Amino acid sequence: METQIWSASLLLLVFVYLLVKTLRREKLNLPPGPKPWPVIGNLNLIGALPHRSLHELAQKYGPLMHLQFGSKPVVVGSSVEMAKVFLKTLDANFASRPVTAAGKYTGYNYTDITWAPYGPYWRQARKMCLMELFSAKRLESYEYIRIEEMKSMLRKLYEDSGKPILLKDYLSTVTLNVISRMVLGKRYLDKDIENPVVAPQEFKTMLDELFLLNGVLNVGDVIPWISFLDLQGYVKRMKIVSKKFDKFLEHVVDEHEERRRSIEGYVSRDMVDVLLELKDDPTLEVKMERHGVKAFILDLLAGGTESSTVTVIWAISELLKKPETFKKAIEELDRVVGRNRWVEEKDMPNLPYIQAIMKETMRLHPIAPILTPRLAREDCKGNPLR
């Protein structure tokens, strides 16, 4: 008898929950979208390349559509107008990030720039980037590094001329060296370093894995009650790559802290030094911990290497397929720069055609076809396009 009472109570509770959920759903004026399945929602419609699956769905349901990923409602914007709504008009409303395994395991428990939720820490991190790390003055001060590394790559290309080469390796190396010197202060990943913490090729492999794992659709994120199963194995891989990066970053931070302690009146030389200065700043609204410093460093390294390399590779690939475009670019360089000196960063504003080539390259081959997901902080009412 008691068992029957408990069973009836449980059924009543489930019924009330579903009823309330249905009533609440009816009050919402959601964008159009496919009807979800129980438990999995619309995950059955997402293939191996999610951005292509979403593009096909957008052709049917429009540039603003509603999907259900497991227990998580998702709104997808897939047009220029929708991008402006989410990233500009309603930017503050969609500034936060959802809870994901990637943010927990590869973002030092949501303390990096990418996965930090909206709040005092997020606002502080954004201010640090704008005022300290990426200020025009600071980026300009690193121009000599970019010049030195570019000339080094050109010398290497000249030495290897006449034999088959893989251009990606050269571009990847020069980008990694530039970012390493700007962020870390030296080439921690140079092939000539004895007993490196991480070998250059291994580090590049780690970056590839980091990019992949931060862009996958992890089923455990959208169906939380089965997350412990790690059905796709992504969480296991996140833990492995996170451990490898942490070993390297610990070495970097230790070396910088030792240098700061041993040299009286030490002046910051790189972005790690700046972060350590900010970490010790008593006026910060939210104290920055050591793991936060490592999270920032990882974002700077990852965000500045692979993205730049891949974009340049695609640009060259497209130019080789379009000789007439390549010819016009060379003509602009000859007219603006001439053939008696190297192109300098100050020349870029005077090279509109080459700038157009880069913009078109990023349009055709975006680094991240699907942006990092955002979390709505409150309901949006009315037509956001009006």
UniProtKB/TrEMBL annotation:
Cell compartment(s), UniProt: Membrane
Chief location bin: membrane
Record SUPFAM superfamilies: Cytochrome P450 (SSF48264)
Keywords on record: Heme, Iron, Metal-binding, Monooxygenase, Oxidoreductase, Signal
Residues of the signal peptide: 1-24
GO biological processes: secondary metabolite biosynthetic process
Reported cofactor(s): heme
InterPro entries for this protein: Cyt_P450 (IPR001128), Cyt_P450_E_grp-I (IPR002401), Cyt_P450_sf (IPR036396)
UniProt GO cellular component terms: membrane
Lipid bilayer topology: Single-pass membrane protein
Top-rank taxon, per record: Eukaryota
Gene Ontology molecular functions: heme binding; iron ion binding; monooxygenase activity; oxidoreductase activity, acting on paired donors, with incorporation or reduction of molecular oxygen
Pfam families named among the record's database cross-references: p450 (PF00067)
Keyword DNA repair: no
Annotated family: Belongs to the cytochrome P450 family.
Name of the molecule in the record: Trimethyltridecatetraene synthase
